[in-house]
Amino acid sequence: MLFQLPEKDVLYRALLDRDAAFEGRAYVGVTSTGIFCRLTCPARKPLAENCTFFETVGECMAAGFRPCRRCHPLTPAAESDPVTALLMDALQKQPGRRWSQADIVALGLDPSTVRRSFKRHFGITFLEMARQERLRMGFQTLSETGRVIEAQIDAGYDSPGAFRAAFSRMLGIAPGQLADGAILRARWLATPLGTMIAVADQHSLHLLEFADRKALPNELKRLRTFAKGRLGIGQFETHDRLGEELAAYFSGQNARFQVPLYLHGSAFTKAVWHALRQIPAGETRSYGQLAGSIGHPTAFRAVARANGANQIALIIPCHRVIGADGALTGYGGGLWRKQKLIEIEKQFIRSKSGMS
Fold first, then answer.
1. What angle do CA 330, 166, 124 make, to 5 degrees?
2. Among residues 296, 290, 327, 283, which one has the least CA distance to residue 308?
3. What's the chain look like in SS3?
4. Higher pLDDT, 55 or 313
5. Neighbour count for residue 221 (Cβ, 10 Å)
6. Would you state the torsion angle of the CA atoms of residues 37, 344, 220, 137, taken in this order, to the nearest 10 degrees?
7. What are phi and psi for residue 6, nearest 5 degrees?
8. Of these residues, 41, 68, 71, 318, which one is catalytic?
9. Is residue 238 within 8 Å of 260, Cβ to Cβ?
10. Residues 197 and 165: beta-carbon distance below 8 Å
C-alpha cells in the first residue's frame, strides 16, 4: 500500500485540533517518547519536529513505536473484530510472551482467519506484531542500560542465544557487538514497501536497505569494520532528514534526495552509482546503456556488479536498471519491490508532463 496521507503540516494541524476526520486513517509517532497515538489523543501535544506520521499501526510498530496508554491506538481497528479484540487484549496482558500458532489454536481461533484479520487491520500478522513488541522492548532496554541480559529478559526470551539470534536476524549484528557512543547508528524506518534500516553518522547516510535483504548482515559487518567497531542503535539529524525525504518520495511529492551520502566503493563503482543517480525517476536504462554513459561500453558485467553492490537503495536507484530486452533483472530487495518502485515513479513522469 502506498502512502496517501496529506502533507505533514496538514496532519500536524489535525493533531493539534484533535480532528476526528483522520480517525483510523493516520497515526503519529513521537520520536521523543517512542510512543504512537491517534491524532485525537488528549495527551499534551509534541513539537512538530518530533512527529512522524503513518498510515497504519503496523507501520508505527515496525518503526519501533509502542502504543499510547491514553488513546489506545490499537483499539479502534480491533473493536469491530472479535478475533483481533481477543488477541490484542491477550497481547496487552502478556507483551513478553512468546506467542505461537498453538497459542492461537488454544484460544479457539483459526490461524488463517487470525492472519487475514491482522493483515487487514494492521498490515502485519499477529505473530509478527508480538515478535516486534518483544524485540522493541529488548531494543529499548539495550539502548537505556547496555545490558544484553536485561534486554533479553524484557524481550521475553528464555534463551540468550534465541534473543541474540532474533536481534541479529533483524539488525544483522549481535547485541553485544553494539558500541556505546557510536559514530554510526542504525535506525528502523517504515515505508510502504516494508521496513528499512538506515545507518548514518552526524553528517551522511552510509546505508539504506530493506530489512529482509540477504546481503544486509555482511553490509553491516563491513560498516562496523569501517567504524572500528563503533556501530550502534540510535539516530542523528541525518535520519530525520532521510525520513522526510522518503515520505515525500512515496507520497509522489518529490523524487529528489538531498541527504548527503558517504559512498563505500572503488572509483569505478562510485562512477556507476553517480550514473544511476542521473537516471530520471520514471525512466529505466539497460546495463549496456549504463556502461556507455560512463565511457566503458563493453564493461556491462562490471557495471552489473557495481549495481548489485549498491547499499543505499532508492537514493542510488539501482532499481531503474533492467535487461536489454526490457525484462526485470535481479534486485536485492526482491523483484516485486523493483516492479512497485518502477510503478511508483511513473507518477513523477505524469507530474512533470502536467507542469509543461
1. 65
2. 290
3. CCCCCCCHHHHHHHHHHCCHHHCCCCEEEECCCCEEEECCCCCCCCCHHHEEEECCHHHHHHCCCEECCCCCCCHHHHHCCHHHHHHHHHHHHCCCCCCCHHHHHHCCCCHHHHHHHHHHHHCCCHHHHHHHHHHHHHHHHHHHHCCHHHHHHHCCCCCHHHHHHHHHHHHCCCHHHCCCCCCEEEEEECCCCCCEEEEECCCCEEEEEECCCCCHHHHHHHHHHHCCCCEEECCCHHHHHHHHHHHHHHCCCCCCCCCCECCCCCHHHHHHHHHHHCCCCCCCEEHHHHHHHCCCCCCHHHHHHHHHCCCECCCCCHHHEECCCCCCCCCCCCHHHHHHHHHHHHHHHHHHHHHC
4. 313
5. 14
6. 20
7. -65, 175
8. 318
9. yes
10. no
At 280 the pLDDT is 92
Which of these ranges, 36-50, 181-195, 303-317, has the smallest mean pLDDT? 181-195
CA distance 156 to 33: 22
Against a cut of 0.90, is the pTM above it?
no
CB 142 within 8 A of CB 179: no
What is the C-alpha R_g of the chain? 21
Contact 337, 210 (CB under 8 A): yes
| Mean pLDDT confidence for 273-288 | 92
| Better-scored residue on pLDDT, 6 or 28 | 28
pLDDT digits (tens, 9 = 90+) for 284-331: 898 999 999 999 988 888 999 999 999 999 999 999 998 775 666 778
The residues, ordered by sequence, that sit 6+ positions from 295 with a Cβ below 8 Å of its Cβ are none
Q: Encode 272-303: b = buried (16+ Cβ within 10 Å), e = exposed.
A: bbebbeebebbebbbbbbbbbbbeeeebbeeb
Closest CA to 127 of 137, 117, 138, 140: 117
Residue with cell 508505527: 60
pLDDT in the model for residue 13? 93
> What cell does 330 get?
535481479
Active-site annotation holds for 37: no
Interatomic CA distance for residues 70 and 77, integer angstroms: 16
**Is pLDDT of 343 > 90?**
no
